[in-house]
Design goal:
Mean pLDDT of chain A: 87
Low-confidence stretches of chain A: 161-173
Radius of gyration of chain A: 16 Å
Number of strands of chain A: 5
Structural class of chain A: alpha/beta
Order of helices and strands of chain A: EEEHEHEHHHHH
Largest interface: A-B, 34 and 34 residues
CATH topology of chain A: Nucleotidyltransferase, domain 5
CATH superfamily of chain A: Ribonuclease H-like superfamily/Ribonuclease H
Oligomer: homodimer
Helix content of chain A: 40-55%
Distance between the termini of chain A: 16 Å
Largest sheet of chain A: 5 strands, mixed
Number of domains of chain A: 1
Chain lengths: 187, 187
């Protein structure tokens, strides 16, 4: 049973999207990566609509079993944090509207999961993403590589929504099947 | 030509909505006020979906010519700012998806427009909202009164989107008609 996870690195100018398939033995393969862009000179409401539609199109095309969104902190990057938070709201809502379980992951969780080191730099993360996915080069742009790292982290740490958000959402049939397969693979 | 303006005071636990009709002579009448609530114990994605659906239902029911959303600042209320920003993203996107012009207004703009004093306290704003709308009592809860104040401010300050956001969105036919009526009323 393959689990498909879609990661979203929220951003208003470039919103990274990465999709991976994860096997019960934790082997990961690349499905898709890219960014949705919006024009910084457009009004904020049009930018949010553009990004929201792009995210929804990617979700509907790739039909993930689970979605991971990077957790945004108010303390960081005051200049861009409002747009990032607005995009994360669109991403979370899009997941809930489709009853796809969604989890939030912090940057340090993602770094630790992918490189083994929570304070790894961006280059180390990108190098490990390429290695895990058996790519010759790190994916570009960086926002797409970050979204892939997020998806890999979420899959490896258990993509069940309860684990990630503390929420009470039930597992989907696909997730239950995957969890059972994962348990079986560890015997 | 009456201009209908819908104000949104974004919030994750209580999101205020206020709708007013404004005549060319600047007289304002109440159409609707209320709040959309979400359960603080629910997962964030479900809360955002609940608030988003409630906002969209109110927009579709009242069919405003213009929407005003309170501008959120990253510096204020660190504990709640992320949820507030996420809801403001949903509100802006909902307006853009319906091609309804939307503008952002700061709290001090709203206070100045409604009370004549940019540092007015909440009680003064609520008292003036009741007076402007010829209500016996200030609307409750405060989030709904804030949304009405926002709608009144936006209408009085010129609800054209270009004025409020600096964006290049064209005026709708209703707005052009209202702008013409407003010019005529000043002759």
């Amino acid at each position: 049973m393959t689990l498909r996870v879609l990661g979203i690195d929220p951003g208003l100018t470039r919103c990274g999207i990465g999709v991976v398939d994860v096997e019960p033995d934790r082997r990961v393969s690349l499905v898709y990566y890219g960014v949705v862009r919006s024009d910084p000179s457009s009004p904020i409401e049009e930018r949010l609509l553009t990004i929201g539609l792009g995210l929804e199109a990617a979700i509907d095309e790739h039909e993930p079993h689970a979605i991971a969104v990077e957790r945004v902190f108010a303390q960081h990057n005051l200049r861009t944090v409002m747009g990032t938070a607005q995009v994360s709201g669109l991403a979370l809502r899009a997941a809930a509207a489709r009853t796809i379980p969604v989890g939030l992951r912090t940057p340090s969780e993602v770094k630790a999961a992918v490189t083994g080191y929570g304070a790894a730099d961006k280059k180390q993360v990108q190098t490990m993403v390429a290695r895990v996915l058996r790519l010759a080069e790190p994916p570009q742009p960086a926002d797409a590589a970050d979204a892939l790292a997020l998806a890999i982290c979420h899959a490896w740490r258990g993509a069940g929504p309860a684990a990630a958000t503390g929420g009470a959402a039930a597992l989907t049939p696909a997730q239950r099947a995957w969890a059972a397969a994962e348990r079986a693979s560890k015997r």
